[in-house]
Amino acid sequence: FPPLDCNQLPRHYHLDPTTQPTMKISPATLAALALAAGGTNAFAPAAPTRSISSLNAVSKKDTYQITLLPGDGIGPEIMSACKEVLGTLQKKCGFELEMTDALIGGAAIDAKNDPFPDESLEQCRNSDSVLLSCIGGYKWDSNPRELRPESGLLKMRKEMGLFANLRPAKVLPQLINASTLKKEIVEGVDVMCVRELTGDVYFGTPKGIDVVDGERVGYNNMIYRESEIKRIARVAGDVASKRGGKLCSVDKANVLDVSQLWRDVVTDIITKEFSDVELSHMYVDNAAMQLIRWPKQFDTIVTGNIFGDILSDEASMLVGSLGMLPSASIGESGPGVFEPCHGSAPDIAGEDKANPLALILSAAMMLRYDLDRAEEAALLETAVEAVLDEGLRTADIKQEGDGCKLVGCIEMGQAVAAQLEKIEVPVEV
Fold first, then answer.
1. How much is the pLDDT for 317?
2. What is this structure's pTM?
3. Pick from 369, 331, 366, 370: which is nearest to 232 by CA?
4. How far is CA 258 from the centre of its chain?
């Protein structure tokens, strides 16, 4: 970005001159605010408008109903930090988020003997949006399949129709040394992974473990309907058309019949409906290698559930830490679910070591995509970048000899809230 001064910000924002010297706002941050009205900045992926359903599930209004799913492990800690930040944002911008907790995962199993109780599902369905921390932990690993935290997550996705998962992986200048890859490999990387979320081998039937000829046999069914592929292809085409115009569809068509159908349908949809998008295809094993070898070749990736599960985690590590990456899970109608890409990290739960930034950035995605509050989302993302510019780091993004200050979850949340306070927002926002 070229250098900008405060006078170049849109009329919706200006910095308080009494606090400006301590903000340490970078040129990228100023450009992010300058582009806020368009809903794009250094953190945010370009927002698809979805030809089959709108990302803005509700019209802009003064009060929103938000379901919070703190979940397990570090989940309650990062949710608490995020709530403090959102509380500051509400006061600054003059709207209200009525936030109500619900159970999911191990916490729900302990309380209700169900990883996603019906009352939690109903509360989510009746909300304007859902913010989820993380689920899972060693405590429940030996439970029967139906009583594991992950089963609650799958149920939520299926029952709420959350068929598309958007995971951005953008390497930030402040954290480029946190990546395990060389600087020249990851510098400038900006990948969006669009993963189909409610089909494939995770949901296909028949499935199970039976005894055949005296030994146990486990099996799952990798299956996709044409309609399921069409709708995710349209989301991916829309995303790609608003980013760099390049879409890579990942499959295993040289071996799997289901992947051949995937390739045929994706090709048909993109060539007919998104003529401005350059479509390519790549086998999943090659894609896994290329993400490490030359990640800058990718702009938008679309793939099925199991391949996307693996590749999106791989892509996220280009950034250096899952603790920085948000995600959005969306459907054709109703609220979306916004959550960080990282897990529940039970080994550090309760120790104030967790990084809340991915959840805070997930809340920004919620504001932009579900609540029609793009400008407020830009404020939140800008406050996060300002905290990184100040040199604050949680343990997962701290590098030896980087000169940055090590902080915990609570202090990081407080720092983001404090940066929000330093940005003056006119009443019309």
1. 81
2. 0.78
3. 331
4. 27
